[in-house]
Sequence to fold (81 residues):
Amino acid sequence: MPPQHTFTKPPPPVSSNTLLSFPTPQILLVTLNRPESLNCIAAAQNWELHAIWEWLDAEPSLRVGIITGKGRAFCAGADLK
Fold:
């Protein structure tokens, strides 16, 4: 059974373009999940990421946040479409 996390506030809601996981109770893993577009970040996803990092900063049980991209690219930058 995976460890239970006790947060002061729950993580912010995210779309399917951003995945949150906790490899250990102190680590937040954020995965950009748009491999078909090389994980470029759309405007709405930019706000999601901002909320995630604000939450991480305020959450005393988390020590580190890691961001990665699904597929062959980490991130191609902003989605300008």
